[in-house]
Amino acid sequence: MSEEIELKLLKEIEELKKEVAKLKGEAVPVIPTFQYSKIRDIDLRNLIDIEKKLNKSAFDTWFSFDITIDKSILDFLTNLIEKNEGLMFDYNEEDLKMYFLSPLLNHIDFKLIDKNIRGFFEEKMTYKTDKFIFSGEIDFIISKGLLYSQKPYFFIQEFKRSEEYGNPRPQLLAELISAVELNNYISIKGAYVVGAIWNFVILERLDRHKYLYYVSQNFDSTKIEDLKGIYKNLLFVKEEIIKIVESEVFT
């Protein structure tokens, strides 16, 4: 059963329950809905069991990915910094997306027609339980599917220029939680962006509504060594997704 059909059935079941409750004169329970773009740390802690781990070794395999940054890539990254570094913390969300993030993501090229993979901007997603609902639009997601997102593999959240516009970390975590529960994953990766600063995240599912997560050190995309690291980390994600998709073909 596809995610879209399952969500539609859940919605119809919930509506039927409400109608039955009304006919019986019973109070209709209201399930609180939390938008990804507005959810806070305290909301997550009240809803689920989630713990941050400080073990940086969780990123060892990911960040030690062996790739040579050749001159063409170095020239591209250097030019990207030179064109944007003076404006990175002043860009609004769409500016940051169009002038910096889109060129970077397009250069790595997550659109793999033969693998049925591409990136999606502003993709809708909903995760519903009997106690809460997570819903909203995802800033950027790499997913199986070309016409629409079928199965998410990696998330990037919040193209904001500073945290005065909201903390992107719990927003990303809510998205990752939705993804692991909807797709029966054990773990999933993502990243959140605040102006020039990137942080990478690994979420692990221990049980239903019980998780732990790791947050990487800051990567300042206006510094060439950090931007090279961001590039390598995203390229690792691309290669990992390709392996996952290829393994799914034979299972």
Kindly describe this structure.
The protein is an alpha/beta fold and 251 residues long. The chain folds into 2 domains: 1-30; 33-249, no CATH class. Helix content is 41%, strand content 27%. It contains 7 helices and 9 strands, in the order αβαβαααβββαββββα. The chain has helices spanning 3-23, 41-47, 60-63, 71-84, 93-108, 168-183, 224-249; strands at residues 33-35, 49-53, 117-128, 133-144, 151-160, 187-194, 197-207, 210-215, 219-220. Strands 1, 2, 3, 4, 5, 6, 7, 8 and 9 form a 9-stranded mixed sheet that branches. The longest helix is centred in the C-terminal third of the chain and has 26 residues, at 224-249. The mean pLDDT is 88.
Name its key features.
single chain, 251 residues, alpha/beta, 9-stranded mixed beta sheet
Number of domains: 2
The percent range for helix content is 40-55%
Q: Tell me the distance between the termini.
A: 17 Å
Mean pLDDT: 88
Summarize the structure.
With 251 residues, the chain is an alpha/beta fold. The chain contains seven helices and nine strands.
Task: Show the helix and strand layout.
Elements: H1 3-23, E1 33-35, H2 41-47, E2 49-53, H3 60-63, H4 71-84, H5 93-108, E3 117-128, E4 133-144, E5 151-160, H6 168-183, E6 187-194, E7 197-207, E8 210-215, E9 219-220, H7 224-249
Parallel strand pairs: 1-4, 2-8, 5-6
Antiparallel strand pairs: 3-4, 4-5, 6-7, 7-8, 7-9
Helix pairs in contact: 4-5
